[in-house]
Amino acid sequence: MITRFAPSPTGPLHLGHAYSALLAHDMAMAAGGTFLLRMDDIDRVRSKPAFEAQAIDDLRWLGIRWPTPIMQQSRSGDRFRAALQVLEGKGLLYPCACSRSDIAAAADAPQEGVPTHGPDGQIYPGTCRHRSMADFQEGDAIRMDLRQAIAAAGTLPFFTETGAAFAGDHQLDADDLLGTIGDVVVARKGMAAAYHLCVVVDDTAQQISHVIRGEDLFDATRIHVLLAHLLNMPTPVYHHHQLVRDDTGKRLAKRDDARAIAKYRADGLAPADIRAMVGLRAV
Ligand code: GLU
Description:
Mean pLDDT: 90
Bound molecules: glutamic acid
Enzyme class: ligase
CATH class of the largest domain: Alpha Beta
Family: Belongs to the class-I aminoacyl-tRNA synthetase family.
Keywords: Aminoacyl-tRNA synthetase, ATP-binding, Ligase, Metal-binding, Nucleotide-binding, Protein biosynthesis, Zinc
Protein name: tRNA glutamyl-Q(34) synthetase GluQRS
Helix content: 25-40%
InterPro entries: aa-tRNA-synth_I_CS, Glu/Gln-tRNA-synth, Glu/Gln-tRNA-synth_Ib_cat-dom, GluQ/Sye, Rossmann-like_a/b/a_fold
Number of domains: 2
């Protein structure tokens, strides 16, 4: 078993990160496997060396150990470009110049019960779908045509292990993906690639056998299963864990600095207190 924790160093680690990292670490150790740390620092504008250093320090303080050197996503540019070429070769990509407000303006009036937002924000209405990569302009993002992608992939079964609401067998379906996720961005303006592509390519490069992540990423997992299939890469086992909630049962905000590990450390808590707070057994 090879698991990983892959924070984006764009802010401090908080309790939710601690839970995910400790769980991935505990699962690997219990199986006699390996736990890897990766820095998902592909966003060069928002990633900061200070957050990276703090994350490493917090994880070590929690008792987590990993082999070095750590993989830096920002160094994987060649792998990402190769993956984009494979998808382009299958005719699945198109350039997109839409801004967030263009997308909001072009989206149909919402119908009751029909989702308007997916894991990447507003579901893309397909404005640029007619464009071809030959017409790529500097500053464009690149999107994947999901209907074409799923037609190229066929029906895809996948399995998620234990934990949370999503355990069991699943199938990817084009209409469902288009209605709940939309054509995803695979490369952003000025960046080698975007999150979904990076994570699939790097999980493969690191031979991750089990991806341990929060259940909020379940829709992202569906995209990752599809991308891995199209890129002829293996699909790891996905384990979606429940999210850490506050005392009132509310899910912790991603950027709640009051729950930063650094803050608990400064308040004098011990690593065992953090384990207890997120409901993990003492080691
Ligand atoms: N860098 C991603 C994050 O911090 C990794 C999550 C994942 O792909 O499991 O949200």
